[in-house]
Write a structure and sequence with these properties.
With 227 residues, this protein is α/β, with parallel strands linked by helices. The chain has eight helices and eleven strands. It has a five-stranded parallel beta sheet, sandwiched between helices. Keywords: DNA-binding, Phosphoprotein, Transcription, Transcription regulation, Two-component regulatory system.
């Protein structure tokens, strides 16, 4: 998952980036409202952690502009002003959840997981595709009850495929969910990670759709022509 973190306080922003990356997501960051607004307009994110007290453009204005432009990604707002008026203003602007500072990082991660499940229409943190089972909360994956030893990039790639199992994902889409925006996105490396995953998963789980990309299916349930 790609998560945008918008926070002007450098230390807290670094802590959020570290915690969210450790949870198996790609964490991108913005330090002011104008940068956040631009990133949210031109990039696709699975969720946003948005501070309200931002320089250059406040968080509520950023959120209102995103929603007016039709950007529907889940947004968790943060504020040092934990009043009910701030909460109402944030929800009215289009926020999906609210957390007042100071907060425990574990609570923020739990709320973020809930938003991601809600948006992807998964009822729990545990996803399944045939004998393959993945827990986004503990960052664990099993095949027929046996744990898989995955690198962080392999886990993120598998999670993206499982979230949209049965759908064809292009190499570009997959690479965007593995690498922060500031790093070079080489879609050719996706082939390497796909090959590694195939060696660890049951045969037939990951199909290649020629000229398009890849899709995850349960073994024995081919997605159709082109695989």
């Amino acid at each position: 998952m790609r998560i945008l973190i918008v926070e002007d306080e450098p230390r807290l922003r670094a802590q959020l980036v570290q915690a969210i990356a450790a949870a198996g997501h790609v964490a991108e960051e913005a330090a002011d409202g104008e940068q956040a607004h631009w990133l949210g307009e031109v990039e696709d994110f699975d969720a946003v952690v948005l501070d309200l007290g931002l320089p250059r453009l406040d968080g509520l204005s950023v959120l209102r502009r995103w929603r007016a432009a039709g950007r529907g990604m889940p947004v968790l707002i943060l504020t040092a002003r934990g009043t009910w008026q701030e909460k109402v203003a944030g929800i009215d602007a289009g926020a999906d959840d609210y957390l007042a500072k100071p907060f425990h990082m574990e609570e923020l991660l739990a709320r973020l997981r809930a938003l991601l499940r809600r948006d992807s229409q998964h009822a729990s943190a545990q996803w399944q595709c045939g004998p393959l089972w993945l827990d986004t909360r503990s960052a664990r994956a099993l095949v027929a009850g046996q744990p898989l030893q995955l690198t962080s990039h392999e886990f993120m790639l598998l999670a993206q495929l499982m979230q949209r199992q049965g759908e064809v994902l292009t190499r570009t889409e997959l690479s965007e969910h593995l690498y922060p925006g500031g790093s070079e996105r080489d879609s050719n490396t996706i082939e390497v990670f796909i090959a590694r995953l195939r060696r660890k998963l049951p045969a037939g789980c990951i199909e290649t759709v020629r000229g398009l990309g890849y899709r995850l299916v349960a073994p024995g349930q081919s997605g159709g022509a082109g695989a």
